[in-house]
């Protein structure tokens, strides 16, 4: 990695609260970020309304005994 | 010995029950084949012939005394190495868990043990059922028995490879984004991801709690149904376990498809993604076979494949990161270089993304299941491409995501990968049959009708020829 890329990766790590990342992690953070961004963008294309609840909803009746 | 190597569960069960075949003889034949050929395939991460022979002797003794337990009594099987077998390490093919000895059996192991099955060993996986084929782990990746220079799919790679190679008639795999069905398609075997919760995940290393499934890989549809009969059922110790008894999956196998309403979800493989022409041709030919058998075929549509895939990946990344974050911080160098960035992607998924993916999941599931109001089965692609080269990093990354399997981890309904032939290069092609929740029997019935009308299951990889070529290469 160039110094610039190392600095960018360190900034990325700081942004997400990753403290003292190992060199292996630092090196692969940009790839991981790009992968996550791709999926987040694809998901945002899907319109949701206020009535759309998540698939996982807390239920008093079912808590701990689904 | 060749006959025993490719003997299926149903045929073996008939012979074993009638005492025309000894479990010890059958097990020894498979042990011998594994010893001769697994150095080329790497399907086994931990081969346990001593346990197998002990199980086989016990089965032989019981059957001889007239105590036949059922179709798996005396039949060999293997476990993907994320599934616990008491007293053996469950490594998840990772340095991280290299010393993780299981204290008790997984639910599926308990069931197979109770059925009198013969345990042959632990099978290779992609690291933590997520990584892809890696060469920087303590064990090599499994290779495709049809051509060992090719990828065999994953993450249940050893389960697919061992079954196709005639090492085992049946194996257990797991599936979070397609990991049973991918090796099934790449290796030309049958793989079932049953309805979420139908098979307990207790004692199985999790990848993503709300998407994980455990299921069977076999060479025939009937054998697959027999294995699901053994492992399905409610488990109060798995919070995701469905209150459904399961079982009885072979009962309607021979009912045929006349009048069955089959939808074809073509836009997944001819618009949202363009499948390889040979894969498309294989699927279309299979649809024609089912039509000729009397099924009523019509094209259907749903949300774009990309919505399902993104939903799967956001949920998978988040849940997997929640499991791995401490190890990623403390032992990052112990992961393979290919696994690490996949797991690290979860750190960039925000809480709102995870919640929204789960909101999208409910909509996608509702809309997809609504298709079954006037349909019995849906056919679509499993993989978009035949297996690529195992050393071809670029193509591995590219083809890993070119699939239509993850949608059914999102919806939770059953999905069955079935072989539909071979590419010109001799690599397996496959399709996927999908149903509404708990309609596994209908998928097996459809697949069985197709299987009986086609000859693909009669072809097997030529491991002996490959071994000779390798030996020749080494000598020269």
Structure description:
The complex is a heterodimer of chains A (66) and B (476). Chain A contains two helices and no strands. Chain A has helices at residues 3-15, 23-44. Helix content of chain A is 53%, strand content 0%. Chain B is an alpha/beta fold. Chain B has helices at residues 2-5, 9-17, 23-41, 49-64, 107-114, 157-164, 181-187, 221-231, 267-270, 277-292, 305-330, 339-344, 351-370, 393-400, 407-411, 440-453, 463-475, and strands at 44-47, 76-80, 118-123, 170-175, 190-193, 213-218, 261-264, 296-299, 377-381, 415-422, 428-434. In chain B, strand 10 and strand 11 (428-434) form a beta hairpin. In chain B, helix 3 packs antiparallel against helix 4. The mean pLDDT of chain B is 96.
Structural key phrases:
heterodimer, A: 66 residues, mainly alpha, 2 helices, 53% helix, B: 476 residues, alpha/beta, eleven-stranded mixed beta sheet, globular
Secondary-structure blueprint:
The complex is a heterodimer of chains A (66) and B (476).
Chain A lengths: L2 H13 L7 H22 L22
Helix pairs in contact in A: 1-2
Chain B lengths: L1 H4 L3 H9 L5 H19 L2 E4 L1 H16 L11 E5 L26 H8 L3 E6 L33 H8 L5 E6 L5 H7 L2 E4 L19 E6 L2 H11 L29 E4 L2 H4 L6 H16 L3 E4 L5 H26 L8 H6 L6 H20 L6 E5 L11 H8 L6 H5 L3 E8 L5 E7 L5 H14 L9 H13 L1
Parallel strand pairs in B: 2-3, 2-4, 7-8, 7-9
Antiparallel strand pairs in B: 1-3, 4-6, 5-6, 5-10, 9-11, 10-11
Helix pairs in contact in B: 3-4, 6-7, 8-16, 11-13
């Amino acid at each position: 990695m160039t110094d610039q890329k190392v600095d960018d990766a360190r900034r990325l790590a700081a942004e997400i609260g990753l403290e003292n990342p190992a060199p292996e992690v630092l090196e692969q953070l940009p790839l991981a970020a790009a992968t996550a961004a791709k999926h987040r963008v694809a998901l945002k294309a899907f319109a949701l309304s206020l009535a759309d609840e998540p698939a996982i909803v807390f239920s008093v009746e079912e808590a701990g005994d689904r | 010995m060749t006959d025993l190597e490719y003997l299926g569960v149903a045929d073996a069960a008939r012979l074993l029950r009638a005492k025309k075949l000894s479990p010890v003889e059958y097990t020894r034949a498979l042990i011998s084949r594994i010893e001769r050929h697994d150095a080329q395939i790497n399907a086994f991460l931990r081969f346990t012939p001593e346990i197998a022979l002990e199980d086989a002797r016990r089965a032989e003794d019981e059957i001889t005394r007239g105590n036949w337990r059922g179709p798996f009594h005396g039949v060999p099987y293997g476990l993907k190495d994320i599934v616990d077998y008491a007293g053996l390490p469950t490594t998840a093919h990772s340095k991280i868990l290299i010393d993780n000895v299981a204290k008790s059996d997984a639910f599926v192991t308990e069931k197979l043990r109770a059925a009198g099955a013969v345990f042959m060993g632990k099978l290779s996986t992609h690291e933590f059922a997520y990584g892809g084929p890696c060469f920087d782990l303590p064990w090599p990746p499994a290779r495709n028995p049809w051509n060992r220079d090719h990828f065999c799919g994953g993450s249940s790679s050893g389960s697919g490879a061992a079954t196709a190679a005639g090492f085992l008639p049946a194996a257990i795999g797991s599936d979070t984004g397609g990991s049973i069905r991918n090796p099934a398609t790449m290796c030309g075997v049958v793989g079932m991801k049953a309805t979420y919760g139908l098979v307990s995940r207790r004692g199985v290393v999790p990848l993503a709690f709300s998407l994980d499934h455990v299921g069977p890989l076999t060479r025939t549809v009937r054998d697959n149904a027999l294995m699901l009969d053994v492992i399905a059922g409610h488990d109060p110790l798995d919070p995701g376990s469905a209150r459904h008894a399961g079982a009885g999956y072979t009962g309607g196998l021979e009912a045929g498809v006349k009048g069955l309403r089959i939808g074809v979800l073509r836009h997944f493989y001819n618009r949202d993604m363009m499948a390889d022409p040979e894969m498309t041709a294989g699927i279309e030919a299979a649809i024609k076979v089912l039509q000729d058998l009397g099924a009523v075929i019509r094209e259907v549509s749903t949300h774009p494949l990309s919505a399902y895939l993104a939903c799967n990946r956001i949920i998978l990344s988040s849940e997997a990161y929640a499991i791995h974050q401490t190890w990623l911080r403390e032992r990052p160098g112990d992961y393979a270089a290919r696994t690490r960035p996949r797991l690290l992607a979860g750190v960039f998924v925000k809480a709102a993304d995870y919640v929204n993916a789960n909101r999208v999941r409910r909509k996608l599931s509702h809309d997809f299941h609504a298709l079954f109001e006037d349909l019995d089965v849906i056919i679509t692609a499993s993989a978009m491409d035949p297996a690529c080269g195992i050393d071809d990093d670029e193509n591995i990354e590219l083809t890993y995501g070119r699939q239509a399997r993850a949608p059914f981890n999102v919806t939770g309904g059953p999905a069955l990968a079935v072989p539909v032939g071979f590419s010109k290069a001799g690599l397996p092609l496959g399709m996927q049959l999908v149903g509404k929740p708990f309609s596994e029997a209908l998928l097996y019935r459809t697949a069985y009708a197709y299987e009986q009308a086609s000859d693909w299951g009669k072809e097997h990889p030529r491991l002996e020829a490959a071994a000779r070529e390798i030996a020749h290469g080494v000598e020269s």
